[in-house]
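This part of the workshop introduces the protein records we will be handling. An example says more than a description, so a record of this kind follows.
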Amino acid sequence: MRKIKHISVLSVVGFLVIQVSKASGIEQQTGPSAAVYNDTTTKKDSIVKAEPLNDNKSDFKNLFQTAMGGDGVTSPRLNPMAISFVENYINRNKKGFESMKKWAKPYFDMMDEVLTQHGVPKEMKYLAVIESGLKYNAISWAGACGPWAFMPAAAKQYGLSIQRGHDERLDYFKSTHAAARLLTDLYAKYGDWLLVLAAYNGGPGNVDRAIRLGGGSKDFWAIQYYLPNESMNHVKKFIGTHYIFEGEGGITTVTRKEMKDLMLNNTAVLQEEEMNNSTSYPITGRFKSAVILKHIEMDAATFNRYNPNFDNQVSLNGKYDLRLPIQKMNTFIAKRYQILDESMALLLNDAGGTK
């Protein structure tokens, strides 16, 4: 893994020195046992198409037709430059990952909760899948270890203790909190989850260099070949893993511009009756969706449909045009100061008290 220069982040942490070193590429995994994993980087997109498992060519056809020909609102489109890689990746890994869905559920549930607390999309848990296969004591050739593949310097920077006989990088809960803080800092720098994935693997220095060589573009697909092959393919592996587990793309598999387009078109996701029976309310402050949900008694899936990417946008901008069904909105307005106080308390606890 590579040393990383100082990066400036728009968060309460201030200026941090991040040293991240990653090795990627996990093939099919069967359980959280010990493992030493190796790189499985493919050279750009010049891959040999493997025979699909279970003769699922028709499934691929439907998947990619939906991704490419969908309305771009209800399901983010798969970028044409990713199709060949993702299709091949799914062919090679779908069987093992489908098995992982069963034994990994307790780990995924915990990660969902922790990532949501930090305002990180819960789908980012699939980064741990490609980093370590969710094996707590996986060790890369570069010395990164744990489910989130932390190198010692980055682990200590983000609050993980490494002592003889006690390495908190191996702790699923604590390392997930550390990874969430690192991901938050990287997103504050780039505002784009594909670039965050590349920086998590290869470091912000390599991403910054690719942006410079790409004429200042922050479109991953435009600058991908200026990145190290490992980092470029790391991003595509994440997209492929997301498709296996979710059956489609999401806000973490598109560029910043594509995500903005999705958010602008979000009203098309709601039915006409839902639009007519809902209202928007501009909020300012570090509200947390988990606290809002508790007070208005609303499920997360419905809330996210009305308010896509809520926690990330609030974290970055400190404001959001909240949309809720009228009755739920009345409850929110009545309790908004209490909700904000609890949100701030949760934020401070995550920033300073959870290691």
In short: Residues 36 and 139 are 5 Å apart (CA to CA).
